[in-house]
Model the fold of this input.
Amino acid sequence: MSLPTNLVTIHPYFKAHAGKGPEVESLLKKFVAKTRGEPLCLFYEFSLFEDAVFCREGYAGAAGVLHHLSNVGVILDEMLTVSDLTRLEFHGPKEEIDLLRGPLGHLNPAWFVLHCGLSH
Done:
């Protein structure tokens, strides 16, 4: 599979509150259902380890990221009542990351700018 050169990935890590596993599980299914129709979403899946939740997700450009976050905002607010966001990263080419710094800077993420790879 060939990925677009404007690929931006989001790497959110959550820690479920004690005893809130069933609520978290229900919300993960809501996230997936809500994201399913997003045209700029390239992949979207959750991985679990004990009480840690990780979402592996990728979008065609900053526009895809911003659309997604707007689309799942209500569910994300619910998620933050049953878990803590322990780390947030955005990875992508400089020009796409720069488009996210203003609208998402308040989240205090780690901004990873693509340096090199097979396509660079």
